[in-house]
Amino acid sequence: MSQTKIPKPAFPAQHQDPPGLESLMNPKPVFEDLGYRGSGKLKNKVALISGGDSGIGKAAAIAFAHEEADLALIYLSEHEDAAETKKRVEQLGRRCLLLPGDVGQQKFCRQAVKEIIQEFGRIDILVNNAGEQHPQNSLADISAAQLERTFRTNVFGQFYLTQAALPHLRAGSTIINTTSITAYAGHELLIDYSASKGAVVSFTRSLSESLAKTGIRVNGVAPGPIWTPLIPSTFSPQDVSVFGSTVPLQRAGQPHELAPAYVFLASQDSAYMSGQILHVNGGQIVNG
Asked: Which fold has domain 38-227+255-280?
């Protein structure tokens, strides 16, 4: 990760194998604002979150539970993290269904939605949050297999899960897509990832136009540097040690700091918003 100056270390240097586990991170991410007080903004709604086992998805799930929603969480294979998230959701008095699988496979997305409907009878909120990244030093180092895999998870996965869920959504339902600051600012080590997140922005805007007359709203969140398992499982220990230090607020964000953005977009507080992207990124100026 290129730096114009050597920032003060933000985290201990560390690395783990992808997709990464919360339990191995030092320090562990903060997923919940213990002072958060829900007000029933999502009462009795059902939210489907991909990548809901850890990171931003976990924080959103916990905040949704505080707002009285039931949860269905899709994750790849991080069973330990998913079980912890489910436990916390249930401690808050809400139901939680875990669905391990690959959103890049259309058949899985269809089966997952089928199981959610069987369990809950409805879907009100869809959060397309699953993502992966594979830093490379140059364009020449990005293999065809990596390019395809990145887009399959980050873009195809959002298409497939939305296609599967859409017949069950109705007027007042919401779709929230996680994109990234890299869609706007780029990243020298994340060329394919940045391109995929740019595609998510366009997908969000186009889908919003397509669904406007149905009363289904579509928006997105573009996080900046957030301390999640994705970081130590993809960046080098040296890059991890300075992660987030160069943004204006001079630190990485914690997952719980994004959760209110997802609650806002999922609730009627944002009833007059569609096709928009919220930027929660530590003070980086973004136009778009």
From this structure: Rossmann fold (3.40.50)
